[in-house]
Amino acid sequence: MSTVTYDFDVIAWAREQAALLRSGQFNFLDIEHIADEIEDVGKSEQREFENRMALLLAHLLKWQYQPGYRGTSWERTIKEQRNRIAIRIRKTPSLKADLQDPEWWDGVWADAARIAENETGILNQFPVSFPWDFEQVMDADFWPND
Asked: Residue 91, Cβ neighbours under 10 Å: how many?
């Protein structure tokens, strides 16, 4: 009964699949693509979490390595990312598993260092590995070399 294909128009497809689910017409569902989309929701949450953490760490690096440039903009970004990360963890507790994964931290740290290098022009001076722990990073009183 599906009239729209996933590859042709994903938005129309999603609306149609939702209508089929709500009306109990399960035989007409595009199960494979629905499963893919559900997995993608989780991946999207993880990407947002990683991106927010990398941005927070990049700003902490900038704070530490460029004290002369510290300002309210950096401070607001650090506070905002801390807040948003805490909200993500509260709303999606399964993200805590990433915090125990050294490979996840390696990737996030590499992203953070790259962001900080691009924004500061400081090259090859940041620590190779994550120098703080999660509790420090999230602590409202933690400001590196302050």
From this structure: 9
Q: What is the pLDDT of residues 101-114, one digit of tens each?
A: 999 999 999 999 99
For 85-90, the CB contacts below 8 A with 24+ separation are: 85/49, 85/52, 85/53, 85/56, 85/138, 86/138, 88/45, 88/48, 88/49, 88/52, 89/49
Give kind and range of the element (H or E) at residue 25: none
Q: What is the pLDDT of residues 60-102, one digit of tens each?
A: 999 999 999 999 999 999 999 999 999 999 999 999 999 999 9
CA atoms within 13 A on the CB side of 42: 8
Predicted confidence at residue 11, as pLDDT, reads 93
Q: Are 86 and 144 in contact (CB under 8 A)?
A: no
Q: In the structure, how many helices (H) and strands (E) does the chain have?
A: 6, 0
What are the strands, taking DSSP E only, across 17-99?
A: none
Domain ranges of the chain: 44-138
